[in-house]
Design a protein that fits this description.
The protein is of the alpha+beta class and 629 residues long. Helix content is 26%, strand content 21%. A six-stranded antiparallel sheet has the order 1-2-7-8-10-9. A five-stranded mixed sheet has the order 21-20-22-16-23.
Length: 629
């Protein structure tokens, strides 16, 4: 779930780590029955100030703020951030163009998630929510004081227009995400009702709650399907103040932001100005931070974290470095094979690609022993499969037994392990045996097929920092007679190649949440595999996967969701679709000592919107920077 911004291209990572996560939540309203505003023939509804998948909402009605913020945080000051890449559009909702990743600051959503609670959200644009007892519809009552930046009210017509526009002209992601919505109606200027094609998708009301509401009047006369050059109008806490396309974007806090004193916003959005500088190279971005041109960064490269923070500002205490514990699902990252290519259609070939990768060597020699191997698409959560399928999971998988690998039922899925010495001979020997079973033979030290065509492919990247992981892999593959080339392109070209599935292998990230839902359709299903620009990076098209995705989406309760996700996880793992990477259970941050922040930890590790500029610290630090440290 995106929560107020368009979906990221999942493969566009800029680090060794999982850096992009989606957060989903499932509706379960433990509140009193109400029939207010319902049609005469409609079932009774529950009204609430928030939605949760838990037994009850964690915060009481009338709560003053989220628990991980300081509601008295001061406003003011500015912060400089860095982004690797470029941008040429302000429209993050379509396939065309490359938008800045933080343009979501401009838009408000119907609901706002609480980062401290599992699968829970509270009203932002919506002051109340009604959910039919049979889950056949959901209604959002908008706050009458909600305003766009031009002063015009946010209305139910804007909600309807946004929804229909995203579904018809937005990224393929939205068509899959909203597929179960049968209709949307503006029943009054502040009341909008979504009716569902079925009541089996328990997550759908919350999916709709994350809708970023766009101003219909501002978009009239503009072509939504084209990249946008005008700074967009929104209703969020920030608006675009200045832009130098491809280089800099400056956001300024809206001084009369309509939602500033809402419980879900109190203590957040404290910087007056946020400036994001864009760098083509991650090394240059880091040097800009060291020089004091950038104030805050999340570190995602283990070598840099272990050895790069030894410059004078760190020694003098002007730059702080911290690992913030996080307790979120970490999903999956890995070398993803495009199974649309004939080269990777055979599962034995794909398994061999995994056997050739020496994680233990990488962890010891490249990552300073800081990472753990990812062994599940739902890693670091109770949704991850393990051992052999049993109980309800086994019962769910049994009807598909003749369509699944026999080993799935009799062997525990395990990734190859080495001693980290770089001598991966046993795994390479096993990989070669699988390749020979798949029809490959070694001739003159090259792996060739029956026609004599060599095994040769390309690993497509958009970040040079990933080359240091890819190049050793290329060398290990060469021992099998496989020729792999690494090609790094700029982010815009990479995006275009990914949209058209013009790649053999890439590094893909599939972020997961506590409650996977409709985004699974975009990740794994046959329909998304055929749709240009979709998030099905791998090209998986398997009726068993399709069926299990539907079981996860329509799970009636948490137990059924866990069962479905574990079964889906197991089927994906035994498909050997990618070479799994690694994960980290903390968020690495470094920053110049000019900030104040709440003294309360947050489940996500980092909630930067709750930080603020501390005038005394900022004055001392900025003076030291001006003096050249």
């Amino acid at each position: 779930m995106i929560t107020g911004r368009a979906p990221h291209r999942l493969c566009c990572i800029r680090s060794e780590d999982l850096t992009v996560r989606r957060r989903t939540f499932v509706a379960a309203l433990p509140l009193t029955w109400l029939a207010a505003h319902a049609r005469a023939d409609a079932p009774p509804a529950q009204r609430s100030y928030g939605l949760t998948m838990l037994d009850r909402l964690g915060l009481p009605e009338g709560f003053s703020s989220f628990g991980y913020v300081d509601p008295a945080a001061p406003k003011g000051g500015d912060v400089a951030l860095a982004s690797v890449g470029s941008f040429d559009s302000f429209n993050p909702f379509i396939v065309r163009g490359s938008p800045p990743g933080d343009i979501g600051r401009v838009f408000d959503t119907l609901l706002q998630i609480d980062f401290d609670e599992i699968s829970t959200a509270y009203g932002l644009l919506a002051q109340s929510i009604e959910l039919a007892a049979d889950r056949s519809w959901v209604a959002f009552e908008l706050r009458p004081n909600a305003r766009f930046h031009d002063g015009k009210p946010v209305t139910s017509e804007d909600v309807v227009w946004t929804f229909e526009t995203l579904r018809t002209q937005g990224r393929p992601f939205y068509r899959a995400y909203y597929a179960d919505v049968a209709s949307v109606t503006a029943e009054s200027p502040t009341r909008v009702v979504f009716r569902f094609a079925s009541n089996r998708n328990r997550e759908l009301p919350l999916i709709l709650g994350e809708l970023p509401v766009l101003p219909k009047h501002w978009w009239q006369g503009r072509d939504f399907s084209r990249p946008l050059n005008d700074p967009p109008l929104g209703s969020g806490a920030y608006q675009v103040d200045h832009v130098d396309f491809g280089r800099t974007i400056v956001y300024r806090r809206v001084p009369d932001y309509w939602g500033a004193d809402l419980p879900v916003m109190r203590g957040q959005n404290n910087f007056d100005v946020i400036r994001t500088e864009f760098f083509r190279d991650a090394t240059v971005a880091f040097e800009a931070f060291k020089a004091g041109h950038i104030d805050f960064r999340q570190e995602n490269i283990s070598k840099q974290w272990a050895t790069g923070y030894d410059f004078p500002a760190v020694t003098r205490g002007l730059v702080k470095k911290q690992a913030l514990p996080q307790h979120m699902p970490t999903g999956m990252q890995g070398f993803a094979m495009n199974v649309r290519r004939d080269l990777f259609k055979d599962v034995r070939t794909r398994q061999a690609m995994t056997l050739a990768f020496d994680f233990e060597w990488c962890n010891a020699n490249l990552f300073y022993g800081l990472y753990s191997r990812t062994t599940s698409y739902y890693s670091n959560s109770d949704l991850a499969s393990s051992g052999l399928p049993q109980g309800d999971e086994l019962a769910l998988l049994m009807p598909f037994r003749d369509k699944l690998p026999a080993d799935l039922f009799t062997k525990e899925y395990k990734l190859p392990v080495t001693d980290g010495s770089g001598n991966n001979r046993d795994n390479l020997r096993a990989a070669l045996a699988l390749l020979q079973q798949a029809g490959w033979t070694v001739k003159e030290r090259r792996l060739v097929d029956a026609s004599g065509k060599p095994f040769e492919f390309e690993i497509l990247l958009d970040d040079p920092t990933i080359e240091r992981i890819s190049l050793p892999y290329v060398q290990w593959l060469a021992r099998l007679g496989i020729t792999a080339h690494v090609r790094t392109v700029d982010p815009a070209q990479y995006q275009n190649l990914m949209n058209t599935f013009s790649y053999d292998m890439t590094v893909a990230v599939f972020p997961e949440s506590d409650s996977p839902g409709n985004e699974q359709v975009g990740f794994w299903t046959s329909a998304s595999a055929r749709e240009e620009g979709s998030d099905n990076i791998i090209g998986i098209s398997d009726p068993v996967v399709d069926a299990l995705v539907q079981r996860a989406i329509s799970a009636p309760d948490r137990t059924a969701l866990i069962t479905a996700c574990r079964a889906l996880d197991r089927v994906l793992l035994w498909g050997w679709y990618l070479v799994p990477h690694w994960y980290l259970q903390s968020v690495w941050v470094a920053y110049w000592d000019r900030f104040g922040r709440p003294d309360k930890p947050v489940r996500t590790g980092l909630a930067f919107a709750s930080w603020w500029v501390d005038p005394a610290r900022a004055s001392a630090t900025d003076e030291a920077r001006r003096a050249g440290l």
